[in-house]
């Protein structure tokens, strides 16, 4: 484990950096990989009268901007569910973010929540991929693929792991989850919820605890 909250994972002759920011940095490709940002969800809930703090919406986009500014990325791959709902003010803030970072090529593999019209995506500087994207030894998607031809890295599930202490206390933390055939990314957004996985000892699980990434042994 690296001191700055990073774990290295060697898979298919490739080294990936698992970041506490709930993303992957692939140094060899100068690429950041993340999933399930769910921008727009806060404004969607507030419009429905649910008292979610407006600041939470700013947090997700702020974390994304901090992430791209702290890593020398040429490409950013978002594995689905970038935007949670119909267009609202958070989409305009994201478009501004894209133009502020026009030295980076952004990619979106469409997820089940990416329901904006094609015209909205067509007018912004972001490459759109309908279902999958192949890069090196990996096949990126939003939802898990059945019997993928390459190692499938995906999102959608929002994985978490529950860790129990000696005094019967427990804590549930977001995690990266890797099996022989696929890897699951944690949800990047701050207001997304998580699904607790029953992990197998043969799999590689890395929980995110604050600013640290820790392998579950």
Q: What would you say about this model in short?
A:
It is built from four helices and 16 strands. It has helices spanning 41-47, 55-69, 89-100, 118-122; strands spanning 6-11, 14-19, 23-26, 31-34, 75-78, 105-109, 126-129, 132-135, 138-141, 151-154, 159-164, 170-178, 182-184, 195-196, 204-209, 212-215.
Walk me through what this model shows.
With 217 residues, this protein is an alpha/beta fold. It has a single domain, classed as Purple Acid Phosphatase, chain A, domain 2, CATH 3.60.21. The protein has four helices and 16 strands. Strand 12 (170-178) and strand 13 form a beta hairpin. Helix 2 (55-69) runs parallel beside helix 3 (89-100).
Topology at a glance:
Elements (H helix, E strand, L loop, with lengths): L5 E6 L2 E6 L3 E4 L4 E4 L6 H7 L7 H15 L5 E4 L10 H12 L4 E5 L8 H5 L3 E4 L2 E4 L2 E4 L9 E4 L4 E6 L5 E9 L3 E3 L10 E2 L7 E6 L2 E4 L2
Order of helices and strands: EEEEHHEHEHEEEEEEEEEE
Poorly predicted sequence stretches spanning 5 or more consecutive residues: none
End-to-end C-alpha gap? 13 Å
Q: What count of structural domains?
A: 1
Instruction: Indicate the radius of gyration in whole angstroms.
Output: 17 Å
């Amino acid at each position: 484990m690296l001191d700055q909250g990073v774990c290295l994972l060697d898979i298919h002759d490739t080294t990936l950096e698992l970041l506490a920011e709930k993303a992957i940095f692939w140094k060899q490709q100068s690429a950041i990989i993340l999933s399930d940002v769910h921008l727009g969800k806060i404004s969607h809930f507030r419009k429905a009268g649910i008292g979610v703090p407006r600041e939470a919406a700013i947090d997700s986009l702020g974390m994304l901007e901090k992430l791209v500014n702290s890593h020398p990325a040429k490409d950013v791959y978002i594995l689905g569910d970038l935007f949670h709902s119909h267009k609202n003010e958070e989409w305009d803030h994201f478009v501004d973010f894209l133009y502020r970072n026009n030295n980076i090529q952004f990619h979106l593999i469409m997820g089940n929540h990416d329901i904006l019209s094609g015209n909205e995506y067509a007018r912004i500087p972001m490459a759109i991929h309908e279902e999958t994207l192949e890069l090196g030894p990996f096949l990126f998607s939003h939802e898990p693929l059945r019997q993928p031809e390459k190692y499938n890295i995906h999102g959608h599930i929002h994985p978490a792991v529950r860790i129990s202490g000696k005094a019967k206390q427990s804590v549930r933390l977001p995690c990266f989850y890797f099996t022989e055939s696929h890897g699951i990314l944690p949800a990047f957004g701050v207001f997304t919820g998580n699904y607790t996985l029953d992990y197998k000892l043969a799999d590689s699980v890395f929980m995110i605890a604050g600013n640290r990434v820790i392998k579950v042994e």
